[in-house]
Amino acid sequence: MSNPNVVLHIKNYGDIKLELYPDKAPETVANFVKLVNEGFYSGLIFHRVIRGFMIQGGGMDDGFNQKPAKSIKGEFRSNGFAGNDIHHAKGVISMARTQVKNSASSQFFIMHAEAGYLDGEYAAFGAVTEGIEVVDAIAATKTRSVGWYDDVPVEPIVIESAEVIA
């Protein structure tokens, strides 16, 4: 059985195609695919963009209203999950979380550069297979501070839709 693939359609930027790795993070992949199939990500934004690090989205609309989603267990080494050895290299997708290890829900980040110190601390669950130039373009956008959020794109970067394609 092949790994699931998801396409994120980003308004004014293009598509990011992801291959997901359920053998490395099964609950994380199942949760992400479920949210994609429910249309959860449509209209949400990338609200943190840090060039040379990552782009983060999947939890807020352009008014910074958080869209609630159920938390899942963090599938990474420091949380007692030994099976996830994905390295946080450029193009890897991983779940965002708070300092609470089981707080990931819908927000994700796509690496713009290598950050090995995240290995074993965050649940990586796939990688970009097409559209890394879209990640680069998003990472190059101008940012500003909004409230307690730093690195917010000046112009909203909207996920128009997401779909499972295989």
Describe the structure.
By secondary structure, the chain is mostly beta strands. The protein has one domain (5-164): Cyclophilin-like (Cyclophilin). 12% of the residues lie in helices and 33% in strands. It has two helices and ten strands, in the order E-E-H-E-E-E-E-E-H-E-E-E. The protein has helices at 26-37, 132-139, and strands spanning 5-10, 14-20, 44-50, 54-57, 92-95, 108-111, 124-130, 143-146, 149-153, 158-164. The strands form two sheets. It has an eight-stranded antiparallel beta barrel.
Key terms for this structure?
mainly beta, Cyclophilin, two-stranded antiparallel sheet, 2 helices, 10 strands
Low-confidence parts lasting 5 or more residues at pLDDT below 50? none
Helix percentage: 10-25%
Distance from first to last alpha carbon: 10 Å
Q: Going across the major beta sheet, what is the strand order?
A: 1-2-7-5-6-4-3-10
Q: What is the H/E string?
A: EEHEEEEEHEEE
| Rg, alpha carbons | 14 Å
Mean pLDDT: 96
**What proportion of the residues form beta strands (DSSP E)?**
25-35%
Oligomer: single chain
Helices, by number, come to 2
The CATH class label is Mainly Beta
Largest sheet: 8 strands, antiparallel, barrel
How many domains is the backbone divided into? 1
* Outline: globular
What is the assigned CATH homologous superfamily?
Answer: Cyclophilin-like
In the CATH hierarchy, what is the architecture at level 2?
Answer: Beta Barrel
Secondary-structure-based class equals mainly beta
Number of extended strands: 10
CATH topology: Cyclophilin
